[in-house]
Amino acid sequence: MKPLEGFMHGVNLGGWLSQCNYEKNHCDSFITEKDIAVIKSWGLDHIRLPVDYNLFQNKDGTFIEDGFDYVQNCIDWCKKNNLNMILDLHKTAGYSFDADEKEVGLFDDNSPYQNRFIELWIEFAKRFSKYEEMLCFELLNEVTSPSFCKPWNALAKKCIKSIREIAPTIKILVGSYWNNSISAIKDLDPPYDENIVYNFHCYEPFVFTHQGAGWLGGNMNKDFRIGFDVTYKQLTQATTEKLGANFCNFSRFNQESSPDYQYFENHFAEALKIAEERNVTLYCGEYGVIDNAKTSDIIKWYSEIKKVFDSHNIGRAAWSYKKMNFGISDYIFDEESKAQRNDLIKLL
Fold first, then answer.
1. Residue among 142, 204, 286, 304 flagged as catalytic
2. Which end of the chain has fewer CB within 10 Å, C or N?
3. CA dihedral 124, 162, 94, 316 (to 10 degrees)
4. Is 194 a catalytic residue?
5. What is the SS3 assignment for 308?
């Protein structure tokens, strides 16, 4: 499969300009040029920058210069450190993947929020498309419900058409429903031109990568722990108990065996076939393991998924650089396992 050149090994800057308190002190200090230099020292080639619309648009739709300045700073830091960058609109007026943020209405018929969405992307294109040799645009993070599929495809097409009037060749990433599930790639419209990239996220097996994630609610208690070397039978039992049967996707495997690269190979197979048929590039914008997991299990998971990414030329960005419960910089390494930090970074 054709790769997304220059975007093969990356990391997210989650929690900086998205999923944050938006206070100036936070935005000025959470990520600085020193962090970009650290990421470069890890041997990575790009960062994914999630941003929320309210840093750029007032309630009446007028623009906020300070928000654009943060993006410009990040572009400048990346250029100085020879890193590429993906600009990801993580939340837009009328829609967020996080229902608790109560952003609703984007996918309603004749929604005014759709114009706000397109206007923001036109402004991004006017300001930043001149950097297309090192920059990609990602239209929207994690569409949730399958019911949004048709309106999302229509809105994405309309938005891309508007961007193309300003930036005819910049790479544009588009993800599908079920939170950018690779299983939903098939329901994306065929690529509108040769510079469209299909974007997906991978946190599978979810009961492992989100063990102890108390924000999930339900039966996922904060002290729940599970290893990566358990059997598929144990994964099925734990997933059913903690998340529900809809999250189980292990029946095709020998129930007494444990996950390895073949699990991910199987999980990606349909999307890889579709990408080949449509001659479109696949990219994984988020993947990772919560810091509750054992270090040895985290490394094993990254090792197995890396084999499949590499074998199919799939670029990716790990979630996330720091904090956010997934911060690679913050994983706890005891005295005996500090050497594993470099092992993990090499797997990104």
1. 142
2. N
3. -60
4. no
5. helix
